[in-house]
Amino acid sequence: MRLSRLRFPALLLALAAGACRDTPTAAPPTRSPVPQQTQRAELRCAVAVTTRAMSCEPVGPRGVRRNIIMGGQGLNVRLRTTNVAWNDSDNVLSADLSVQNLLDQPIGTDGTSTYGVRVFFVLGPNVTQGTGSVEVLTDSIGTFTASGQKYFVYPEVIQPREVSAPQLWEFSIDGAVDQFEFFLLVETQTPAETSILHFRPERGTPVFYAPLYGVYAATAHDVFAVSDGAVLHYDGNYWRAMDAGGCGCASQLFAVWGSDGRDVYAVGGSGLVAHWTGTTWDEVDTGYSGLDLYAVWGSSANDVWTVGDGGRMLHYDGIGWTNDGPVGFEDPLYGVWGSGPADVWAVGEGGSILHYDGAWSVDTTFAELDLNAVWGTGPGDVWAAGEAFGGTGVLYHYDGAAWSEVSDPEIELTGLYSGWSSGPADVWVVSGGDVLHWNGAAWTRSAVGSGLPLYGITGTGASDVFAV
User: Fold this and answer.
1) Handedness of CA 391, 392, 398, 402 (dihedral sign)
2) What is the pTM of this model?
3) What tens digit of pLDDT does each residue of 246-270 get?
């Protein structure tokens, strides 16, 4: 399964996600926790009565998450106006308004129950041209940021990029009003309110004609991605191709990991191991060449594992490399991860899951599937992802005692290639061109808009995730 999926020709697309990540910054960001609560997007709407026109624009800086106000029109949500009409007999201006979700996760739900979307008037309507007054005609009145605020309810879950059913808005106009304005807050819930709102293409190398297979983030400003004969680096501003001439990286590189941003290993075809020392990339002579290596992980600079074809499991102890796999095991291995030097997992072809506690052994095998990745946050929170022979996604979780299959329609749609977690209730998996997220209660799937297969995912925290 692994070899066939790596043959897709693709144009490079590095995607990054973050609640506040709209522009690059050279200094490490300072992040403060965002309270769990409903989210609100603030909008200013202007109405021209004579021309029957209504438009809504954001208020304040775009893309900045404040305490309860975030983003605005055209970034997080968009109010769409149609059928603006005037009734001469009642002096009523009416319009159909819909809410479009521009986030990469649903709105109107916490992941388990429907909350809906509420659009309420925080200020106005106020006459800006002409004379007279304007009144909003709605029976819905409540307390949001103040008491007695009028609002409209959209009682549904709106999926990413989707548009709600329209609601009829009416305004009673008294006098010679030519134009008026009002300020709105769009309030809703999302499944992961402190997590990713948007995935967007990263700045940097505009066109790179090769797939990216793996990605590793040392910090938010020190991220590495590997490809066919190249290593890309993100410095907090842009992605750039590194000078990897000394590593012999003419073959494919499939995975990358480091103990920090100045001690990084990339592995790939024909047993290639390349080492970044902070100044140069050097090829490492492990003594074991010829077989492809697909994954790399370590607990420290002196405890590094890489796995690949033929059941190969190479270990670096700070002095040299040894092949420490179990005797007689020769199936390809596609993923490796551990919580420490005596708790390491490897997964691969045929659904094999191996465990290291001082020596490697086959822990369990799941028939008729391949496992492409393993990751976790601790000895009692480990995930293994892959695909069944029919092409459907499979996901397993280890709770410290046993492996159990995770069943969900979103998981089963397509094969799963890679995963990363910041905690037990913040789990990310790439699946085809989509990203799956577990918030501790429910799985959601987001089409991040690349149109390309995604093979790798990593992050530095719940609001800073990279997919390639």
Assistant:
1) negative
2) 0.71
3) 676 666 899 999 999 999 999 999 9
